[in-house]
Amino acid sequence: MSLTPEDLDAVCGLVSDLCGIYLDGSKEYLIEGRLADLLKRHNCASYAELARKARLNAAPTLKDDVINAITTNETLWFRDNSPFEALKNKMFPEIIDARAGSVFPRRIRVWSAASSTGQEAYSIAMTFADIVPEIASWDLQIFGTDISPAAVEKAKKGEYSPLEIGRGLDQKHLSSYFIKSGDNWKVCDVIRSKCRFEVGNLLKPLPSLGKFDIIFCRNVAIYFTPPDRVKMFNAIADLLNPGGWLFVGSGESLMALGPDWSPKQHCRAICYQPKGGLTYAH
Ligand SMILES: C[S@@+](CC[C@H](N)C(=O)[O-])C[C@H]1O[C@@H](n2cnc3c(N)ncnc32)[C@H](O)[C@@H]1O
């Protein structure tokens, strides 16, 4: 069924209100590909009717179903590699040094914003464990948030098919940090215990997660309008500890945000310190 202008307006408006993802007529193929099943399941005669039903909460999970269907949850282990090299060689060692003698010498807080199905957060935890084998005794807190309830559920479970494991995970990390679960692989308890996942919309006031030493916000801003991107990154900057680092996707640039956002390069990874300075000790 092709979309009328009324369908397009209704669906694009709904998706924008639900998750800030900007769609227009050029994405008609994507809308049809992702929402056609929902249309059938909910006996809707048109996409406009589907959007109306979702707005009216006509079926209990319809809004979540739309979010799960329309979001692109593409992710992989150690995606782009260089941010994890930077964590291993620079950020984690420097934070560990700076914290020694502070009130919470073993506390490190990281946020994987738009964590999808969890690979990014678990990759961060594995990177820490690679340099600190006694990770269990560290108060490493890695929060993953994503707007897709289905992605968050999967992240919480921490169980992945061989196909998913094959997307970026090397043999060393697989044998060190996963256990076999039937045909699948499950993240081991010590790594899972450092990671917590919650549903959250990056364009709405965020749940009080506290401040972070490191924030990964990668490959999500591309779906938003330029003003929404600015709004989101400014809100994220407020959640960074002074001297904390922000990583964005490899193809993303924050030049439009102004001089406070000049990029820095470590281990070939681009990162930002929008609050400036290296003077953290919390
Ligand atoms: C392409 S994935 C990126 C995952 C991971 N950060 C990475 O780089 O591998 C984009 C994720 O952003 C999430 N997302 C989209 N809009 C969002 C919003 N408004 N708030 C939070 N997450 C959102 C999607 O559900 C999806 O899981």
> What is the third-level CATH name, the topology of the largest domain?
Rossmann fold
Q: Please tally the helical runs, counting DSSP H or I stretches of 4 or more residues.
A: 11
Average pLDDT rating: 94
CATH class of the largest domain: Alpha Beta
Order of helices and strands: HHHHHEHEHEHHEEHEEHEEE
Question: Approximately how much helix is present in the residues?
Answer: 40-55%
Please state the second-level CATH architecture of the largest domain: 3-Layer(aba) Sandwich
CATH homologous superfamily assignment of the largest domain: Vaccinia Virus protein VP39
Beta-strand residue percentage: 15-25%
Indicate how many domains the architecture comprises: 2
Describe the biggest sheet? Answer: 7 strands, mixed
**Class derived from helix and strand content:** alpha/beta
